[in-house]
Amino acid sequence: MYPLGLLPLLQAWVPEDAASKLAVAIPGVVFLVLFWSLADSNAESREEGDPECLPLSSLNTIGPFFKTRFDFLARGFQLTGQSVFQFNLLRNKVIVVSGESGRRDFFTSRGLDLTEGFKVLSGAIPMLPGITSDLQTRRIALIHKRLATAQSSDRLSHLVPEILNDAESVLRSWGTSGTIDPFTHIPALLFQTTVRCLSCHELADDVATVARLRALYDTLDTSTTPASVLLPWLPSPSMLTKLYASKKVYDIVNRAINARIQSGVSRDDTLQMLVDHEDNKLVIVGFIMGLLVAGARSTGTTASWMITCLGGHPEWQSKAKAEIQALLSEYSAETSAGSSLKEQLASIPLEAWENRMPVFEKIIRETLRMAQPHTAMRRNMGPETYINGIRVPSGAYVMYPFSDVHLNPQLYPDPWKFDPDRTESKASFGYVGWGGGKTLCLGQRLAKLQLKLITALTLLTLDLNLVDQTGRTPNPIPRPNWNDSLTCKPPKGSCLFQFQRVDQL
Ligand code: HEM
Q: Where would one find coiled-coil regions in this protein (predicted)?
């Protein structure tokens, strides 16, 4: 089935009074189905070798799992007193693992599949079966292969001035002084540059379309509810909103692809690379729709926290600035007369951005340790397997919360302290900021480049003063909220930047 057809079909065929009857009937059906699912899941029994069960009913797991996942998982370990426990999400068995051998088995087990786990337990990407969900393994592999091409040294070198150009326009749109919320303004900036890097110039040059796409992806986030994830086939209001937003994103992306193909005009961007490979159109749409949101969310969150942490730690801000100034004086001496800051930064070669910024590397690493509230999700698509001696049946879901390693005081003393000088943990899989074992981030090269370029331009362009809504300096800066599993934003207004432009762009 191709659910995109569902919405127009409903609008076209359901008369108004029938629609209102449906509005009453649907919640009733939803309730009955939910009741059946919950009752059924509670009846499941525990077998020999299975992990300890969470002593909570299914009704008491769904809300906390989606709304306060960090607290929920921490409570699970506490209530069971075990390093591995299980609970039921409706009819799905979910096993949560922790500890050194638990995470080693988790990241290396052959049968554990990321896409299948993500599909059921997360569900925030646009859901278009065959395009962004229900993708066959071969199509996913092809998208990953194209992502590697999109990050070749040649492509990334081309992207350096383009990212700086976009970032400069966005910074300029903030004015010469004022106050910004880093958790709104910086993700918007990263969204713009991600559209540039992963799609085409026609979309990235159109500020209104970029804003529309961002709003649609935000709608997809907010309409990801327990019902839309666990019962995606039920026409709940959140599912219909998701469907509508997905269809709109699809239309925008599809229109841009068609226009490029029909024009026959070749341009220097990622869409052209995809078109030139003559891939199936669904691969191109899936690449852009899926990676755009995956990339922009992670880089946006990381950049917000990175710049916020630098705002709260002037000594690290100075070190970062000194590192970039040193590269500027080495590479931009000839171009600097009369050239803008973005042009000077663009004259630093890719090799230096990638390999000669140890301070930025440390800052990125520490930011990801503290402010990446990820819970890795997998489904066992192979035969029964064992994690830390505990049986994981075929078809079961398995999770590993990154807090288990990144906020572990034994591995990272005083874990909420931002300290890029920390010694690296020697424990097995002691740092998983870019994944581990058989699942490593495939967009790492692009993500790091964007983080470095945008942070460098921002720090050298703006004088930043971190304040709360009363104008006082927050000391210490607020902790990342790990219960907010996408953005880990602090409470609204607790962290703002007063800025003053110091470099004329
Ligand atoms: C700061 C930004 C980013 C961070 C911190 C990050 C982190 C991660 C992590 C931790 C994983 C493994 C997840 C798991 O084990 O459950 C992952 C996977 C992945 N990332 Fe990223 N990521 C970032 C940006 C990007 C970007 C920009 C792209 C694409 C352009 C991307 C594409 C992917 C893909 C395709 C995978 C799945 C790999 C697979 O299925 O084997 N990421 N990322």
A: none
Contact yes or no for 402/369 (Cβ under 8 A): no
Distance (Å, whole) CA 80 – CA 282:
45
What is the model's pLDDT at position 287? 95
Measured from the CA of 439, which atom of ligand 1 is nearest? 41
Q: Answer yes or no: do 34 and 55 share one domain.
A: no
Would you say the CB of residue 298 lies under 6 angstroms from ligand 1? yes
Contact 61, 89 (CB under 8 A): yes
Mutation test residue for ligand 1: of 138, 147, 298, the one with most atoms within 8 Å of CB: 298
Say how far apart CA 67 and CA 69 lie, in whole Å: 6
Tokens 């935000």, residue located: 218
Q: Are residues 29 and 58 in the same domain?
A: no
Q: Is the dihedral of CA 406, 410, 415, 418 positive or negative?
A: negative
Q: Are residues 31 and 161 in the same domain?
A: no
341 and 428 part of one domain: yes
| Separation of first and last alpha carbons in the chain | 52
Q: For residue 327, give every residue at least 6 positions away whose Cβ sits within 8 Å of its Cβ, in sequence order, or none.
A: 348, 352, 356, 357
Is residue 38 over pLDDT 70?
no
Note the pLDDT of residue 10.
32
Asked whether 364 lines ligand 1 (CB < 6 A), one says: no
Please name which of 478, 483, 482 lies closest in space to residue 468, comparing C-alpha atoms: 478
Sequence-distant (≥ 6) Cβ neighbours of residue 104 within 8 angstroms? 428, 429, 437
What pLDDT is recorded for position 331? 92
Domain that holds residue 23: 4-42
Q: How far is CA 308 from the centre of its chain?
A: 18
> How many structural domains is the chain composed of?
2
Average pLDDT, the chain: 87
Please indicate, yes or no, whether residues 413 and 438 belong to a single structural domain of this protein.
yes
Helix (H, G, I), strand (E, B) or coil at 418: coil
Q: How far apart are CA 445 and CA 157, in angstroms?
A: 12
Are 167 and 503 contacting, i.e. CB atoms less than 8 angstroms apart? no
| 439 and 422 within one domain | yes
Task: For residues 252 and 175, give the distance between their C-alpha atoms in angstroms, rounded to a whole number.
Answer: 30
Peptide bond into 476 cis (omega under 30): yes
- Same-domain status, 31 and 53: no
51, pLDDT greater than 50: yes
Residues 6 or more apart from 250 whose CB is under 8 A from it? 4, 126, 128, 131, 285, 289
The pLDDT-based confidence of 45 (bands split at 50, 70, 90) is low
Ligand 1 pocket, 392 CB below 6 A?
no
CATH of the domain at 395: 1.10.630.10
